[in-house]
Design goal:
Elements (H helix, E strand, L loop, with lengths): L14 H12 L12 H7 L16 H10 L10 E6 L2 H9 L10 H4 L2 E8 L1 H8 L11 H24 L3 E5 L6 H7 L6 E10 L15 H4 L7 H6 L4 H11 L7 H10 L10 H7 L6
Helix pairs in contact: 3-7
The structure holds flavin mononucleotide (FMN).
The site of flavin mononucleotide (FMN) has 12 residues, from strand 3.
């Protein structure tokens, strides 16, 4: 089935495959009918997070290729305020994975996959340059410097994700790296003025596991034309429930509405899993968030 076709096979899909791809992405909701298909668009629309991996190492040159793609992303003022730490040492990976287990759930794929990339918002290099002559890096004290470096790390990482998928690898982002950001920083020897925004598991998908493209809401939910349309955006979420309930049923997940996920992730502190302490960790790392 198209859904589990290896993304290495990124030739142009047939009309039937295009329809199937859009059906998986949107379910019974309205679908965009005028997609301009090419290999890049096809590869992007095939994305799904991978949570089952083979232990095989990445092929020679894969890490460098992925990082070259990351470096090719636009970055704020060409200041290069991000870094990535590639963790391959199994013992270290296990200790880092442990930090994400605040509620006992964890992300076992961190240990399964051969490489775990830790993406950092990183002002440390430029902060040292600024301070070398005794100058005060006042700009780094403002919240925007954290936002800027976090944006740049995110853009770089998403380029890396696309590159990895184009090589037939799978990825899964791990926001749970912020559950105990202080411990993660210590484990990888992070300097001040940097912090791990999220991790990314990279490896070969286990071919025996089930993968399913996760549906997105219809475009009217996220696409506004000229002015934000609150009603259209919210009403458009109704038909999304059907797509998500079919997705959950197919993967054997307990039934739950998407709205319930949205509600509980906003109202229950358990969702934070330790991330409520992030401000203190950031301040200790030198970010003043003015
Ligand atoms: C910044 C970020 C953090 C994420 N953190 C986690 C995580 O800690 N554990 C996990 O299993 N998935 C994590 N994900 C994956 C999302 O759950 C996933 O992207 C989303 O459900 C959509 O599914 P898809 O990627 O298969 O399309 C994260 C994704 C992003 C972008």
């Amino acid at each position: 089935m198209f859904v589990i076709m290896n993304s290495r096979n990124s030739s142009m899909p047939s009309t039937e495959q295009r329809d199937e791809l859009l059906a998986l992405r949107y379910g019974p909701q309205d679908k965009p009918e005028n997609i301009i298909w090419n290999d890049t668009i096809t590869a992007l629309l095939r994305h799904r997070s991978v949570r089952f991996y083979r232990p095989d190492p990445l092929p020679d040159g894969a890490l460098e290729t992925i990082v070259a793609a990351a470096q090719a992303a636009s970055n704020s003022s060409n200041l290069h305020q991000w870094s990535v730490v590639a963790v391959t040492d199994p013992a270290l990976k296990a200790r880092i994975a442990e930090t994400s287990r605040a509620n006992g759930v964890g992300n076992p794929y961190i240990e399964q996959a051969p490489v775990f990339l830790l993406w950092g918002a990183d002002l440390s290099r430029n902060n040292a340059i600024a301070g070398a002559d005794g100058d005060h890096a006042i700009v780094h004290e403002y919240l925007d410097s954290l936002v800027m470096s976090t944006i740049d790390a995110s853009l770089a990482s998403q380029n890396a994700a696309i590159a990895a998928e184009s090589l037939g690898l799978g990825i899964c982002y791990i926001g749970a790296m912020r559950n105990d950001a202080r411990a993660v920083a210590e484990l990888i020897g992070l300097p001040k003025f940097s912090f791990v925004t999220f991790g990314m598991v990279v490896g070969y998908p286990d071919a025996d596991a089930a993968y399913r493209i996760r549906p997105r809401p219809a475009q009217e939910v996220v696409l506004h034309r000229n002015r934000y349309d609150v009603n259209r955006s919210r009403e458009g979420l109704e038909p999304y429930e059907e797509a998500m309930s079919a997705f959950r049923a197919e993967l054997g997940m307990t039934p739950k509405t998407w709205k319930e996920s949205a509600r509980s992730s906003a109202t229950e502190m358990a969702y934070m899993d330790g991330r409520e302490n992030l401000r203190a960790t950031l301040e200790d790392a030198g970010f003043m968030l003015r």
